Amino acid sequence: MSESVDLGKLASIVEDVPTLPSVMFEVLAVAEDEKSTAGELEDVIMRDQALSAKVLKVANSAYYGIPRTVETVSRATVLLGFQTVVGLALTVSVYDTLWGAGKGNYLDRRELWKHSLGVATAARLLADTANRKEGAVAFTAGMLHDVGKTILDNFLPEEYSKVVELCQKDGIQMHEAELQILGATHADLGYKVARKWQLPDVLCESIHWHHNAAGADDEYRRSAALISLGDYLTRHAGIGEPLDVVQPELDPAALAIWGGSEADLENVAEELMNSRDKIEAFQT
Ligand SMILES: [Fe+2]
Ligand SMILES: [Fe+2]
User: Ligand nearest 190 Cα, by number?
Assistant: First the structure.
């Protein structure tokens, strides 16, 4: 455990992170109730005009292949599915909340957003196409997997600068440098904040285990593996710059959990390259 930051300090950071806007609790409640209709979801989202507009903006950026621009939340729900629209609303709320909570220091938010959109897109490509919910969860978890980095950058800038320095000096992965300096990683911190926000278990667990999919409980392992592989593909495709200097290695455990071969992964890498320009062009 690190001597420079005690765990009590990390716990107090979790307390300092603002709660999500109340509309999100309504969105999550609608999402969790199996009897909910698409109309109920639209009603909740459309009551918040800024949220509706941003959801549509992300929907139009992330889902190439849609014949025309999606102009309404109800159209987005029909085309993309209920769970995807919930995920987009969640993504927009999370980043608005975190970015509104501080100016940020070392992390280029635009680059982190592009990285996250890349991972989300890749994870969705890796998901089972016959399982629409898995694709939506993979996309949302991809958008949120590195939230812990934004939290560290906002609330522990001094220590975070040491983490960035150590990565560069020793040529190690960011989560390894975080463990040395903070005694915990951005995945641990992101997990704790996701729990505080009462996000669905699968999102909390995917955030927690995105650098070690084999560590997750059985029911969340696949989702964590999709994020791990999505992260690998996105970094190697050069989409976004999440402040890490070292390219991640392919985690064989994540590949085995996914169930495809390295050649299958190559095919997904090619598909990801097709959406690279669109991701790079996206303005938050
Ligand atoms: Fe990460
Ligand atoms: Fe990442």
Answer: 1
